[in-house]
Amino acid sequence: MRILGYVTSSLALWSTAVCNGLFTQTVRFDDHKLITIQTADNYAAEVVKNNDLDVWQRNEELLSVFVSADQLKQLEEEGVNFTVQDVNVQALIDAEGNRLNNYTPFSNSNWFAEYHRFEETLGWYDSLAEKYPNLVSINKEVGKTHENRPLWAIHLGRNDLNGALDKQIWVQCQIHAREWISGMVCQYIVHTMLTNYERGDERVKNILNKHEIIVIPFVNPDGFEFTWESNRLWRKNRRYDPRGMGVDLNRNYDDHWGQTGTSTNPNSDIYHGPSAASEPETKALSKYFLANTKIVAAMDYHSYSQLILRPYGWTRNPGEHEKLLKTISDNMSTTIQKVHGKKYKSIKSTELYPTSGSASDWWHGATVRARYNFKPYSLTIELRPSNSFGGAGFILPPKEIIPTCQENYPAFLEYVEFALKNPL
Questions:
Q1: Which of 269, 233, 267, 236 is nearest to 353 (CA)?
Q2: 8 A C-beta contact, residue 385 and residue 396
Q3: CA dist 171 → 119, 192, 386 (Å)
Q4: What residues are paired with 143 via a beta bridge?
Q5: Consecutive 10-residue runs of the chain (424 residues): their mean pLDDT?
Q6: Distance (Å, rounded) from C-alpha 59 to C-alpha 347?
Q7: Are the C-beta atoms of 361 and 30 separated by less than 8 Å?
Q8: Quick check: 85 and 92 in contact, CB under 8 A?
Q9: How far apart, in whole angstroms, are the C-alpha atoms of residue 261 and residue 243?
Q10: How far apart are CA 252 and CA 275, in angstroms?
Q11: CA of 191: how far to CAs of 52, 169, 188, 339, 385, in Å?
């Protein structure tokens, strides 16, 4: 089902924009530290959970947590064993800001050399729709955010398919505001599929001549803009609550909402919201997903940790399609590693940590099955870096943009082809 909005000319918006001074930060983290805790230390992990601390990464050995000076003191008082990492996160943010405030406007040829603001990126998508009118259509009226920004859906596929459309693939990025690299991967997928189609790439033509890719470039535009304007490490949307600001949209979907791996505290980075699908972003995108009834697979790009996560997050029990989901996830891991040698580990979501109310679980859950009479494939990819135990974490340098995109593009095509050939 294709629901179209109007495509307007915005090429000048991004190609001639004056970018100086666009990155400003009113929130600083000079007193913060990145610490690691042994994952096997159950007492320490419980203290982190009970205090709603900002967990950046987790693996079998270590838990990476970003804490203020007061929080660090509290951990010491509670007898938690931890190691302080030799990384100055505020210095990384300052360096990024200095770079962004001094870059020159970009052309289409070097778009992926740097990160871009929300409006600039929408203009870039508009320019692709103008260049490829037979392959791109944009719905600019999927919904509105708390701060009245539009939620867009980019539809890739032959515009003359109409009723002949076979199957659809859903892709979304930037649900967590600070994970800038996720949005760049969506942009790269769209741009590369279009340019390769134009060059006669049979693999891409076989997809777009019969099927449709639906890309949600910004699930959380309010939060994303806030990371440029005020707080680079902001994660949630911008819902106002007198007790605290923002909801984690990836805990707000109506699938086992409010259960494991969430928080009732509005100040928490994993606050699940006042009710299931309470947020305009979650509500609008869930409705739009259900309106497109031929979706056979969905993908949610995040950062970081280099992981391929399959359902479920709310239970350790294997799902009915565990074998197929593991097969394609393992295959994608191999494909990614062949590009630049980076290993993306394939695991079930709950093996990383428990979650509920996530997009990935909702896509592969009871509500979608009841509407479609089948379950789409559903994966979440955590992008570069592999770990930040002394590294950059969310502040991924721009030199990493193209390699990250390059290694994920063929894996995405493999996922699409597998799902089209083996629908659940």
A1: 269
A2: yes
A3: 20, 15, 22
A4: 151
A5: 33 36 88 93 92 89 93 95 93 94 70 94 96 97 98 94 84 98 98 98 97 98 97 97 95 96 95 98 98 96 96 92 97 98 96 94 94 93 83 90 98 98 94
A6: 11
A7: no
A8: no
A9: 20
A10: 8
A11: 39, 16, 5, 19, 23
> By three-state DSSP, how is residue 102 classified?
coil
The answer to whether the CB of 138 falls within 8 A of the CB of 156 is no
**Full-prediction pTM beyond 0.90?**
yes
CA 230, chain centre distance (Å): 20
Note the pLDDT of residue 19.
43
* Torsion on CA atoms 261, 264, 265, 269, rounded to nearest 10: 30
State whether the Cα torsion 410-412-417-421 is positive or negative: positive
Residue 347, beta-bridge partner list:
309
- Give Cβ neighbours of residue 94 (< 8 Å, ≥ 6 apart): none
Of 358, 364, 360, the C-alpha closest to 250 is 358
Active site residues: 382
* Residues 355 and 248 sit within 8 Å (Cβ to Cβ): no
**Polymer length in residues for the chain:** 424
CA angle 316, 319, 325 (to 5 degrees): 110
